[in-house]
Amino acid sequence: MAVRRRQARITVGLVAAMALFGIGCNRDKGGGRARRVDAAVAEPVKAPPPPTQALPETARETPPPAARGGVLRVHLEAEPPHLNPLLDGHQVIQRVVSGLVYETLLECGSDGYRPGLAERWDESSDGLRLVLHLRSVRFHDGHPLGPADVQASLEPLLRAGTRQPALRELLGDVEAVEVLPDRVVRLRLHRPSRLALRALCEVPILPAEGLRGTAAQAAQLGKQPNGTGPFRVAAWERGKRIRLVRAGPPGQGPPYLDEISFEIDGDGARALARTRRGDLDVLPRVLDLHYPDQVGSGALRETLSLYRLTPDRYSFLVVNHRHQPLSDVRVRRALALSWNRARLAEEVHRGLARPIAAPFGNLPPLPFDRAAAQRLLDEAGLSDSNGDGVRERAGAPVRLTLLLPAGSKAAAAEGRAFALDLRRAGLLLVPVTVDPSALLTRLKQGEFDLAPMLWEGRPDDDPRMLFGPQGELAFTGYRSDALAPLLDELRLADGPRARAPLLQRIGETLAAEQPVIFLYRHDVVALVSRRVHGLTGSGDRLDLRAVWVDP
Q1: I need a labelling partner for 364 at 20 to 30 A (CA). Which of 102, 132, 298, 489 fits?
Q2: How far apart are CA 45 and CA 438, in angstroms?
Q3: Closest CA to 495 of 257, 238, 194, 293
Q4: Is the pTM of this model over 0.90?
Q5: In 10 A of CB 492, how many CB atoms?
Q6: Segment 386-442, tens digit of pLDDT
Q7: Of 164, 143, 142, which is closest to residue 153 (Cα–Cα)?
């Protein structure tokens, strides 16, 4: 099942149901990202993982004059269907145009919100009006950015029929977008909400003429983007590359590059080889099956660096709260204590998965503790009355099903390990392998006990998108009286810093209630040539705007 941020990429979304177990269902639908780990024969990684670096969020240095110019070659894992980021959330579209060709009204950072296309903003005293003052900039075709362009970009996302449900969710508190004189836009809100500002960091602004024009004009916008960003699309060689060139004359600040060439190649192994040879400068994601063996110090040249990226991507087992005994929090916690996260993170996920207790806050992960799980099951009234080793409820043996995606050996391996550990605690777990489309149907119809899922979002996302009454996990039957007031309080918190202590409390509530069985946070590894400087990023979003390369 997919829940799109985001993804999408927008990046907020419950991506494909079984991306956790590597059947290639993450935010971009273009492919080229599948994991093919044979977990049935996987062994713990014996050698220490290769050293990695962390990317800064903002640039720390500027290039010397002689280093300005040049071409940056970046791997693109699939051919985009088009280049209109408002139509859908394909990650490959976002990689090419986000921040480079198209810009947003605001930019989000760990320290708060920064001006983007909006140079400043004001809020009414009642919190129901948000007024944005636009910068004086022009689209690549020369026409000036105006309030009508903002209105045309935002309004379709407020409608129920949008193909960007994650963006619609982010803009859920916005009632209308109004055009005012002097490059001013006003948002009317249903209710006071600081999350509307967060939404404006995600929505790219496209020209109203293309968005509101004929079908031919809209199609042309998908082939030849027209943005306000530092780069414009110069050529799209189908199946080969998409070339971006600097949109204006060189100046004192970024962009420093003359060109960015996104090299299209759906073969991850070949892309790794091309990066080793120096044909590519940036490989945004090393496939999991190539880590760590293919990128260890002995496998790479001294001209390459590894970066460990930490996207807000976490996996869990979704739980059907309408099925007994899963409605009992003690049973759900016993299940959580029976998943051996530390061992499976190494054996199956090659050290790129970090065990978690909840997706928000700073909480220690749950240990593997069979004795504690057994005590909780005893407290829940699940006992083995006839001595056959299987616990019973109301005289019937407790038998749970775990839906798994067909074709994934990793899923099968983790499912078998979980079933074995539960059996030792006195519960029967039956892994059931189904086709992904059938699994989706069963989830929608409530015909499941447990199933794996993966959420891909941003650190400052609204938890309502998953755990609220109308969230993506509402089909599980989870409701929380303790969580609801925290979500309301979070909506009014002013920026990331103010939300941090609230997210801590939300994480503690989720860890206590176990609405799902939280498993891991998943990292990715990027490979970058050492001729590249000024690379920054947040999560797994690489920011190429201030990059320069050695001559």
Answers
A1: 489
A2: 34
A3: 194
A4: no
A5: 15
A6: 999 999 999 999 999 999 999 888 888 999 999 999 999 999 999 999 998 898 899
A7: 164
